[in-house]
Amino acid sequence: MMGLMASEETRIVETRTAMSPTERGRAAETSASGTTPGAGRTRAWATRLVVAGIVLSAVNLRPAITSLGALLEEVRDGLGMSGSVAGVLTSVPPLCFAVFGVTAPRLARRFGPAAVVCAGMAAITAGLLIRPYVGNTAGFLAASALALMGIAVSNVLMPVIVKRWFPDRVGSMTGLYSMALALGTSLAAAVTVPVTDALGGSWQSGLAVWAAVAAVAVLPWLPLVRDRGTRAARPQEPVRGAAEQQAPLRMTRSRTAWALAVFFGLQATAAYITMGWMPQIFRDAGVPAGTAGVLLAVTMVMGVPLAFVIPRVATRLPHQGPIVLALGACGLAGYAGLYFAPAGGAWAWALLLGVSNCAFPLALTMVGMRARSGPGVAQLSAFAQSTGYLLSIPGPLLVGVLYQQSGGWGLPIALMAALMVPQMAVGFLAGRDRTVEDEATR
């Protein structure tokens, strides 16, 4: 963190040094005449609230999914679900992300990104609190959809908020956000089973406890709900020309947008299959339930350091394709291990798949790099995530069907490995140094 602060200070000093004495004088006059000490303090506190909101929100973007994965067998027994219905349940997250994520830019324009994320955190809280106690599969799915709706809009708007408030620190802030997301994901996977046991063995209580964690994430956004994205509220965003702010972008005309959307979809497919089914793969191989949850946590916790490092490295490279290929190779190795020796090398496979899952923070970083403006990032984020999650819907469902029909994990794991090859190909294309503004406005 000290290194990050030092690098930012160095950039500020270099920028000031590059200015002529006249320009520095004008900048000082503008600062003195246009910014009061009180306003400066207000902006500083607003920035701190945004950082806290980003971190706390990111922590709550996956426990709704990984906590369920750790207790999927108990939930299936409690609600009388078949394997196919459980496959539908694991497909609900990408479906909700596709359906609701596309509405995020419109909601943000009307109410402001902070207000939408605040409402999203409230929806997550309500959904997680309600779903364990509805008593039937339909109600469980509906309450899960409410929580996932909040996750969907927050997913799309996190890169927008990072670009708007920290335009010169996209890599660092995306890394911080991704690291917090990985921490929340792994924490839910690791402690859900022990917490359930401590609460008397009730899977309802084990799932509902995460509503309290989500409620905390509402608080930092409350003072910011009136922010409509004005210049005063976000002093770090550079002034842009009217043409750049208003030019409509047709994302369907951009090859980069399509490559990023397909890459996002394939990595989401792998991630949600992993989060939804990997504990069951280990349990069916003879691994105890508690250990299977810890293995999923190991997979998720790999994203904590790597999700901070990978975005910073990616922003320094002209082409992010080599990172895509390295992550894909780890995924192929992990799937091969699950196929041939799921229990014998369980810890190694969990580590490799954890590295492979860091395609998610890389995809988020490329969303911020493949568009020049804040509105461009908002449109690209909505297009890539909504289209990507729509493409990812069949994956977890198909895994559930193959598992039930074949009676084993050979075919599902072969499917996961096969999908990794096109993920590497389109990710390599998405990593090229292009911007959607150049392609979508032609």
UniProtKB/TrEMBL annotation:
<feature type="transmembrane region" description="Helical">
    <location>
        <begin position="380"/>
        <end position="403"/>
    </location>
</feature>
<feature type="transmembrane region" description="Helical">
    <location>
        <begin position="114"/>
        <end position="134"/>
    </location>
</feature>
<feature type="transmembrane region" description="Helical">
    <location>
        <begin position="257"/>
        <end position="277"/>
    </location>
</feature>
<feature type="transmembrane region" description="Helical">
    <location>
        <begin position="347"/>
        <end position="368"/>
    </location>
</feature>
<feature type="transmembrane region" description="Helical">
    <location>
        <begin position="49"/>
        <end position="72"/>
    </location>
</feature>
<dbReference type="InterPro" id="IPR036259">
    <property type="entry name" value="MFS_trans_sf"/>
</dbReference>
<feature type="region of interest" description="Disordered">
    <location>
        <begin position="1"/>
        <end position="40"/>
    </location>
</feature>
<feature type="transmembrane region" description="Helical">
    <location>
        <begin position="84"/>
        <end position="102"/>
    </location>
</feature>
<keyword id="KW-0812">Transmembrane</keyword>
<keyword id="KW-0472">Membrane</keyword>
<feature type="transmembrane region" description="Helical">
    <location>
        <begin position="409"/>
        <end position="430"/>
    </location>
</feature>
<feature type="domain" description="Major facilitator superfamily (MFS) profile">
    <location>
        <begin position="46"/>
        <end position="435"/>
    </location>
</feature>
<keyword id="KW-1133">Transmembrane helix</keyword>
<dbReference type="InterPro" id="IPR011701">
    <property type="entry name" value="MFS"/>
</dbReference>
<dbReference type="Pfam" id="PF07690">
    <property type="entry name" value="MFS_1"/>
</dbReference>
<feature type="transmembrane region" description="Helical">
    <location>
        <begin position="322"/>
        <end position="341"/>
    </location>
</feature>
<feature type="transmembrane region" description="Helical">
    <location>
        <begin position="174"/>
        <end position="195"/>
    </location>
</feature>
<dbReference type="InterPro" id="IPR020846">
    <property type="entry name" value="MFS_dom"/>
</dbReference>
<dbReference type="InterPro" id="IPR052524">
    <property type="entry name" value="MFS_Cyanate_Porter"/>
</dbReference>
<dbReference type="InterPro" id="IPR004747">
    <property type="entry name" value="CynX-like"/>
</dbReference>
<feature type="transmembrane region" description="Helical">
    <location>
        <begin position="207"/>
        <end position="225"/>
    </location>
</feature>
<protein>
    <submittedName>
        <fullName>MFS transporter</fullName>
    </submittedName>
</protein>
<feature type="transmembrane region" description="Helical">
    <location>
        <begin position="289"/>
        <end position="310"/>
    </location>
</feature>
<feature type="transmembrane region" description="Helical">
    <location>
        <begin position="140"/>
        <end position="162"/>
    </location>
</feature>
